Amino acid sequence: MDPDRIRLVISGICSVFGSSMLGLAAVWLVFVNTHSALDLAYLGLLELIAGIVFPIPLGTVIDRVRSKMFLGLMLVAAAVSASAIFLALAVTGFSLLLFLLMVFPFRVFRVISRTAANVITPEIVGESEIARFNGILRGFSTSFSFVAYAVSGIMIYISGPDMIFLITSALMAVSGLSILTLKKGDKKTGRGRENRRKFLSDSREGFRWLFSNRGIMWISISAVFFNMYFSATASYLVLFNANLPEGTALTFGLLSAFYVMGFSIGGMAVHRLGTERYGGIAWIVFQGLISGIVLVIMSVENSVLLSWLLIGIWGTTTGIGGNTWLSSAQKYVPHDMRGRYFSIDTAISYAGTPVGIVAGAIIINSYGITGDYMLIGVAIILTSLVFLIPRTLRKFGVER
What's residue 146's pLDDT? Predict the structure, then answer.
């Protein structure tokens, strides 16, 4: 692996590790100090705003400036934001309003940096290696996010959460510097007269491009539902584990481990399987249809061993589906449109996540965790069949 790819992997791992640690610490701080579910909802609302409102205009910025520089600066800004949170806690202690106001910029910088990373990856890796590289990076990132949660939990237990924000700052700084020292990825995305267009005109052009490319547009719309369904089930995996006859901390840890292992295997298999050539169908079948079938089976079985197997299959299918979409999009979307496409896709698909978390809680309260997995599994299957109807989605990526 050449130095630029190594730097890109290091940057991805550090940013995921840092943001995962900060996310857990933020939730713990708010709950311990307020004991209010409503205050946790405020924290979730800020994340929703950061994911929907800000990516679209900043996606246009990405398409007008040097992508590498922009990504590096966003990560460095996230590092500064995390340091500011640490200093505020050290000087003034916890104040909910101040804490929310200071966490918000970090969330914005993190969301934008993910979009910018998707834009520059093809320039560094090359189109022929996109699927393989995305599989490796996504597998590492998912694994390290689980490790980050464990490390954060231990740190909170031993010394409290404050130091986590300082560690997050250091990790984000390393991530940003890794990007800024890349040799590639600094290509201007605008061309000639397009650079002189008005900002709003460029933003509107991004929407026009997406709506005129119906196949990839349907994928973005379907992601709203799949993200919602995933949040309604995966967020409550600990409750699923507790419902098992021998559900313990060990079985829960292994459930998480098998999902991560499956996700990593699935992501790396895309290059071998060539599913990015059949992006639309592969996305719906693996991310949706098979995942729904697995959830239905999980809702009716009651075996620890079978649950480990099924969660591994679920991880594999979502790994294949997610990497198939990302690799297909990076190949299909024109270079000077990637910033706007990925930002619009983020804003559209992100909306399903908080809705899914709330919906999952309501279903669990009424029908229990098995009812949640059954209802959501059936919903995924039906939704997948509906999205297989548009011919433009089925043909997206086929024999390009």
Answer: 72
pLDDT at 311: 92
| Phi-psi domain of 262 (left: phi exceeds 0; alpha: psi -120 through 50; beta: other) | alpha
Kindly list the distances between the CA atom of residue 55 and the CA atoms of 3, 59, 119, 221, in Å, as whole numbers in the listed order: 29, 6, 13, 16
Q: Give the 3-state secondary structure of residue 66.
A: strand
- Dihedral of CA 74/75/80/81: which sign? positive
pLDDT computed for residue 37 by the predictor: 58
- Are 78 and 170 in contact, with CB atoms under 8 Å apart? no
Helices 338-350 and 55-62, axial angle in degrees (round to 10): 170
Low pLDDT (below 70) residues in the chain: 1, 37-38, 40-41, 66, 185-197, 249, 253, 398-400
Let me know: does 119 contact 67? Beta carbons within 8 Å: yes
The terminus-to-terminus CA distance of the chain in angstroms comes to 27
> Is 72:177 a contact under the CB 8 Å cutoff?
yes
Listed in sequence order, the residues at least 6 apart from 188 whose beta carbon sits closer than 8 Å to its beta carbon are 65, 66, 195
Number of residues that this document lists for the chain: 400
CA atoms within 13 A of residue 217's CA, in its CB half-sphere: 12
Output the pLDDT for position 15. 94
Query: For residue 371, what pLDDT is reported?
Result: 93
The pLDDT of residue 90 is 93
Q: Which amino acid is at 282?
A: A
CA distance 54 to 52: 6
CA dist 168 and 298 (Å) reads 36
Q: What pLDDT, on a 0 to 100 scale, did the predictor assign at position 190?
A: 47
Distance, in Å, from the CA atom of 250 to the CA atom of 162, rounded to the nearest integer, reads 28
- Decide: 340 and 220 in contact? Cβ < 8 Å: no
Cα 279 to Cα 99: distance, rounded to the nearest angstrom = 41
pLDDT for the residue numbered 369: 87
Q: Measured at the alpha carbon of residue 3, what is the angle toward residues 279 and 7, in degrees to the nearest 5?
A: 70
Supply φ then ψ for residue 303, to 5 degrees: -120, 135
- DSSP annotation string for 314-368: HHHHHHHHHHHHHHHHHHHS-GGGHHHHHHHHHHHHHTHHHHHHHHHHHHHHHHH
pTM recorded for the entire structure: 0.76
The amino acid at residue 228 is: M
| pLDDT of the residue at 375 | 96
Sign of CA dihedral 370, 42, 355, 218: negative
